[in-house]
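Exercise 7b. C-alpha cells:
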C-alpha cells in the first residue's frame, strides 16, 4: 500500500510540468509543494490573472511574482497552467507553471507587462516612484 501511495505522489508531482530556467531571479517550487505562497511585496500569478494587477513601489524595490497555477492534488492528479511575466521593454521571465521570478526596478516610470501566452487578457503594471 505504501508503494502505491509513493508512486501516486511521484506521478502527481511529475504531471505538473517544468519550472523554467535557472537564474538568480527564478526559483523552482518547494520540494513536495505545488504552489508558492503569495510574496509579501509581490504579485501572485494565478490562472489567467495577476494579483494585484497594478502595483506601485519606490525606486530600488524588488517585486516578486509567485506562481499559484496548479489545481488538484497528488491523489487525483494535478493540472498546472504555464504563464510568463513579459515586459514591454523586452525583459521577460521564463514561461513556467511553478516557482517565482523577481525584478528590481531602479528607474521611475510605469512598466507594463503581460503573459506571453494570454496576451492583453492577462496584463499588469508596476509604477515606480
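Sequence design result:
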Amino acid at each position: 500500500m505504501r508503494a502505491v501511495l509513493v508512486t501516486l505522489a511521484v506521478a502527481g508531482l511529475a504531471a505538473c510540468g517544468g519550472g523554467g530556467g535557472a537564474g538568480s531571479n527564478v526559483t523552482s517550487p518547494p520540494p513536495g509543494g505545488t504552489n508558492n505562497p503569495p510574496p509579501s511585496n509581490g504579485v501572485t500569478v494565478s490562472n489567467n490573472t495577476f494579483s494585484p494587477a497594478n502595483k506601485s513601489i519606490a525606486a530600488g524595490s524588488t517585486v516578486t511574482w509567485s506562481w499559484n497555477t496548479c489545481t488538484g492534488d497528488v491523489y487525483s492528479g494535478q493540472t498546472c497552467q504555464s504563464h510568463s511575466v513579459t515586459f514591454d521593454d523586452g525583459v521577460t521571465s521564463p514561461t513556467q507553471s511553478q516557482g517565482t521570478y523577481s525584478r528590481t526596478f531602479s528607474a521611475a516610470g510605469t512598466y507594463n507587462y503581460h503573459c506571453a501566452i494570454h496576451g492583453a487578457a492577462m496584463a499588469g503594471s508596476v509604477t515606480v516612484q
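Instructor comment: The helical segments are 2-14. The chain has one domain: 2-128.
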